[in-house]
Q: What sequence folds into this?
């Protein structure tokens, strides 16, 4: 069976859905979906090997994936988890977050980044974003930190595949004795100043949801150079056991069951081997879009000097976002709005004091952003379809 045949079979049987509850690929002919996981024959072989071994839960396959992912990022340690959200919660627990502690984060993100702070007992406090990068504005973060005396950490989000200004935020954290936890759930392999994300803060978290740059089906991982954080995280994901990964029933801390399975780790090891190729394909599509849309009345993504964007999403910004989305839908091109409602305006945050914050750049972005297909399975023909659909929309105005 070829890779293409394998992928087709897996996609048809998976029923995988995106965070917006829309099907990743409806298998209707000619549609260009907003996401399309590429698994491949090697992943099937690795997963089959694990299934045949009978070692399905946490075990040697997970340890191998952790070691390989740490090496990829350039960190000393990695701790695998059940998903990106549990990675964030676990990392915050390992960093010692306590009730009443405030953590500054972005209002323009998937809600898991702020939810994790609340689930770990802290309070999310929002700073505004840079309108060019959609990531935390260090100047506004500094304003928030200086106005409050309860901030213990920063949780910047590397959004759409572009790193936040990690050097500036880490300098600010050092000045005020704060921890930095990177939310790198959308930025596998992205770089700033030659360093991969996941290496700047005290710890970082990645997600392996099916739509991400690499997937384990579900799954997450924490990267860190701090042995104390890695050890506490390893205990926490395994019910607080003193010796993670063993049969010990000595539970030295309160913990949870946030372990990754060996099946997921096997899939992750195969995906990690292809991640650089996946990212290059995304960058190639993005470059083609940049050139094709240069004269159109929309803003294309920014890639600042010394940054390397990995385009988890290719997100444009336009005053007529909804009309453009409708035009693309008529041409069978999938789109996504990430994120239509900023976190501080979500119903779940009505009782959070930080929800009263005025964050104009986040709110403007939420009204105007639209993502178009950029995943590795976009073919040259698909790319032409997307480009023509966008151009035709503006030609008709």
A:
């Amino acid at each position: 069976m070829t890779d293409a045949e394998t992928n087709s079979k897996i996609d048809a049987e998976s029923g995988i859905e995106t965070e917006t509850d829309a099907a990743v690929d409806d298998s209707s002919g000619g549609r260009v979906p907003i996401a399309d996981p590429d698994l491949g024959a090697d992943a099937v072989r690795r997963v089959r090997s694990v299934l045949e071994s009978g070692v399905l839960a946490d075990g040697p396959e997970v340890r191998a994936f952790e070691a390989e992912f740490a090496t990829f990022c350039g960190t000393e340690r990695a701790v695998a988890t059940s998903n990106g959200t549990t990675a964030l919660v676990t990392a915050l627990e390992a960093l010692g977050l306590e009730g009443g502690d405030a953590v500054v984060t972005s209002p323009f993100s998937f809600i898991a980044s702020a939810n994790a702070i609340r689930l770990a007992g802290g309070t999310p406090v929002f700073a505004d974003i840079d309108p060019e990068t959609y990531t935390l504005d260090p100047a506004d973060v500094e304003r928030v930190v200086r106005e409050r005396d309860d901030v213990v950490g920063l949780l910047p989000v590397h959004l759409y595949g572009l790193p936040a200004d990690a050097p500036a935020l880490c300098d600010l954290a050092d000045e005020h004795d704060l921890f930095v936890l990177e939310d790198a759930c959308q930025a596998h392999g992205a770089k700033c100043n030659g360093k991969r994300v996941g290496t700047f803060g005290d710890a970082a978290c990645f997600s392996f949801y099916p739509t991400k740059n690499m997937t384990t089906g579900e799954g997450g991982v924490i990267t860190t150079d701090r042995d104390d954080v890695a050890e506490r995280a390893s205990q926490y994901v395994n019910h607080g056991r003193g010796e993670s990964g063993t049969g010990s029933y000595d539970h030295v801390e309160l913990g949870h069951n946030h372990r990754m399975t060996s099946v997921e780790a096997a899939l992750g090891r195969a995906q990690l081997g292809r991640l650089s190729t996946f990212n290059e394909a995304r960058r190639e599509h993005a470059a083609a879009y940049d050139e094709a849309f240069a004269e159109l009345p929309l803003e294309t993504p920014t890639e600042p000097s010394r940054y390397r964007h990995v385009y988890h999403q290719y997100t444009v910004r336009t005053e007529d976002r909804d009309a453009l989305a409708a035009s693309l839908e008529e041409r069978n091109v999938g789109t996504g709005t990430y994120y239509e409602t900023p976190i501080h305006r979500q119903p779940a945050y009505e009782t959070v004091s930080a929800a009263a914050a005025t964050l104009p750049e986040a709110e403007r972005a939420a009204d105007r952003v639209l993502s178009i297909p950029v995943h590795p399975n976009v073919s040259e023909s698909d790319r032409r379809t997307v480009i023509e659909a966008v151009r035709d929309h503006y030609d008709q105005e």
